[in-house]
Structures are given as structure tokens and as C-alpha cells.
Amino acid sequence: MNLRNYIVVTAAYWGFTLTDGALRMLVLLHFAQLGYPPVRLAMLFLFYEFFGIVTNVFGGWLASRLGLRVTLLAGLALQVVALGMLALLNPAWATGWAVSYVMAAQALSGIAKDLTKMSAKSAIKVLVPTGDEGRGALFRWVALLTGSKNALKGCGFFLGGFLLSVAGFAGGLVVMAGALLAVLIAASVTLPGAMGTAKQKAGWGDLFAKTRAVNVLSAARFFLFGARDIWFVVGVPVFLSASLGWSGARVGAFMACWVIGYGLVQSAAPLVFRGRVPAGGMAAGLAFGLAGVAAAVPLALAAGAPAGVVIVSGLAVFGAVFALNSAVHSYLILDYTDGDKVALNVGFYYMANAGGRLVGCLLSGALFQWGGLAGCLWGTLVFVLAAAVIALALPRQAAHPEKLVAGGVKLGGGE
Questions:
Q1: Where are the alpha helices (DSSP H) in 34-134?
Q2: Residue 231's closest CA among 107, 381, 355, 386?
Q3: What fold characterizes domain 3-410?
Q4: Is 50 exceeded by the pLDDT of residue 401?
């Protein structure tokens, strides 16, 4: 594999991820401190998620024509612009204008996030030659990139809370914009220009012409990540702050630790599975296990168990099972696609991911305002069950069984 380019892509993705996590926590805590209700807090992230859907539809098509280097650098540049816009937010503006302005900046950040994510994850398929090392190698590299990204996003949550307390809202944004600009410059002078360009240019008809496996996996992804964001975006942070009296720094630290732990489990997925290369049955089984965890948390709260203990321990277990499920999904989308179409298929897949996050974001504010944290958690259960049932339709055997041998060791791919 081309280790140098893999390192550059990963470093750029890491730099972006730190600012993405910090920005989410900065915006959430800053406007929660200003007294914004849960539904309005969710609205601040509405365009972030919506434009992620649009970006993933067209981003994969664009990357297949111009190359992954162009889309990766464009994502980094747009995030710098978004951070700069938010730093110029005037506290004296009327609420409606301030919300609209933040939503516009978040739209740019959503485009940036999905361009960067699609480019980085598609590059793994291009840079890791599975024919040489076997599908197990692809699974390991995907798990490493995705898991490390999520661990760093958790660090970003902590960074956002820290910057808000020491530099203020605008100051923290300026610091992040400057750091990410340096990452953009470094990546632009090191990545090869033709990275990830398809041999045959994709047409408009290729945007939605997917295999059945890609369509089913994308549908399962929609509900899986919608389930997470139903409690993650508004429900848990506001509950910990308003109901349990946690400080902003403590809430940020908890969310950071949760995402860091989630990322570490995701990175360790190949070790947890002990060399088994995932197929569709594993995705379905993990989703049903996740549904059991999602049901246990609100049932424990209803039984009168201490809320703080239930939330912290229950969501820790939820995060571990969710991380393994997500790692399997992230591998399967690459296994289900040919290298020349990887950007198109990954873009379509993350369009479904962004759609689930959008719906989850809206439901997070609405369900919390209607039924509190318990309402969010029951909504999470419904979405997880939907993801599990859909995943039952995934292929039960490996997509490319001829690649199951690496270094003379058979890597079992069936369920």
C-alpha cells in the first residue's frame, strides 16, 4: 500500500475531526448558556445535517471525476471558512438573525465534513490493495482510520468546552481556523493530484445506480445513525446540564470520553472479532444486541435507578456495541464496491448516514421536549430495531471470497 499518502490523508482527516467535534460542543454549550430551548438548539444543526445529505449525493460523483485530492482539500477549506464566519457572530444581533446566520455557517461545515469524510474513507479502498493483503487488511485499516477519527472527535468535544472557557466563543473559533488552515496547506503540497480519479468518468445516471447490497446497507445505516443522534445531539447533553446540574465542562468531558471510548472500541474491532472478516449476519446480530441495550436504559430509569449511574453506565455499553456495529458497516461498504466506483458508492452510503443524522437531530429536540430523556431513548430503540431488521437482508457471505487468504492464513468471511 502507499503508506505515505495514507498517513497524509489520515492526518488531514484527524485535523478536521478535532475542529468538527470542538465546533459542535462550542455551538451547543454557548447557545444552551444563552437559554435556547431544546428544539431551537436542534435547529442550529439542521442545515449541518441537511447539506451533508446533498454533499454525499454529488460529492462522490465529483470525486470520481476530479479526484479525491480535490474533494479532500475543498472540505478542509470550507471548514476554515465556516469557522471564520462563526467567529464574526455578533452577540447583539436579534435571535432570529443569529440563528439563521449560525445555520448558514453550519451548512458550510456540513458540506465540509462530508466532503472530507467521503474523501478520506474512499482513499482507503484506493490506497490499500486488498488483492495483495486480503480483505482482513482492508478491515484493519478501515477500523483504524474510523476509530481514530471518532476518538479524536471526542477529544474535540473536550477541546470545544475548554476553548469556550478560556478563549470564549469567537476566540476559540479563531484558534481552530488557524490550525486547520495549516493542515490544509500541508495536505495541498503533499498529496498527488490524480489520487482516486476514476478511469471511466461517472455520468449522472451513476449517482443512484447501486447494487442491492449497497442499497440495503445504506438503509440500515440511516436508522443506525439516526438512533444514535436521537439521544446524542440534544437529549443527553441538556439532561446532564439541566436535570443533573452538571457544568458545561463536565458535560463536554463526558461526551468526549464517550466518543473517545467509542473510537477506541471501533479501532479494536478486528481484535474483538479475532480475525473474522465481517459479513451481513454480523451487522444484523450486533444491531439486535444494541436494541437490547437501548431498551434497558429507559427501563432502568423508569424503575427508579439513580439517573446518573444509569446514563453513564448504560450509554457506555451502548457506545461499545454501537462502535462494533459501525465498524462492520464501514468495512462492508468498501467490500461491496469496486475500487473504480468507491467514491460514488461511499458518497451514496454517507448520504443515507447524513439523512439518518438529520432525522435523529430533529427528533432529539422534539422528543426531549415532549418526553424528556426517556422519550429520546425510546425513539432510539425504534430506530435500532429498524436497522437490525433491514440488516437481515444483507448478504450472509463475503462479497469477494477469493480474497480471503492473506499470508497463507484463511480469514473466515461467512457467518
A1: 38-44, 46-66, 68-87, 95-127, 130-133
A2: 381
A3: Growth Hormone; Chain: A; (1.20.1250)
A4: no
Q: Is 404 exposed, middle or buried (0-12, 13-18, 19+ CB in 10 A)?
A: middle
What would the DSSP string read from start to end of 225-258? HHHHHHHHTTHHHHIIIIIS---HHHHHHHHHHH
Q: What is the CA radius of gyration of the chain?
A: 20
Q: pLDDT category, 202, cuts 50, 70, 90? A: low
Between β-strands 409-410 and 405-406, what pairing exists: parallel, antiparallel or unpaired?
antiparallel
How many residues can be counted in the chain? 415
The dihedral built from the CA positions of residue 287, 262, 153 and 170, taken in this order, carries a sign that is: positive
To the nearest 10°, report the CA torsion of 306, 307, 311, 314. Answer: 40
Distance CA 332, CA 336 (A): 6
Question: Which residue is listed with cell 450472509?
Answer: 396
Determine whether 342 is exposed, middle or buried from the number of CB atoms within 10 Å of its CB (0-12, 13-18, 19+). Answer: buried
Q: Which grid cell sits at 222?
A: 440511516
Q: Please give the Cα distance from 334 to 139 (Å, whole number).
A: 9
| Assessment of whether the complete model's pTM goes beyond 0.85 | no
Whose cell is 437481515? That residue is 392
Task: Please report the pLDDT score of residue 148 as a whole number.
Answer: 75
Asked if 223 and 387 touch (Cβ cutoff 8 Å), the reply is yes
C-alpha cell at 233: 445531539
Euclidean distance between CA atoms 260 and 18, whole angstroms: 12
Q: Do 176 and 163 contact (CB within 8 A), yes or no?
A: yes
Q: How far is CA 170 from CA 79, 86, 167, 397, in A?
A: 15, 7, 8, 51
Residue spans of the domains in the chain: they are 3-410
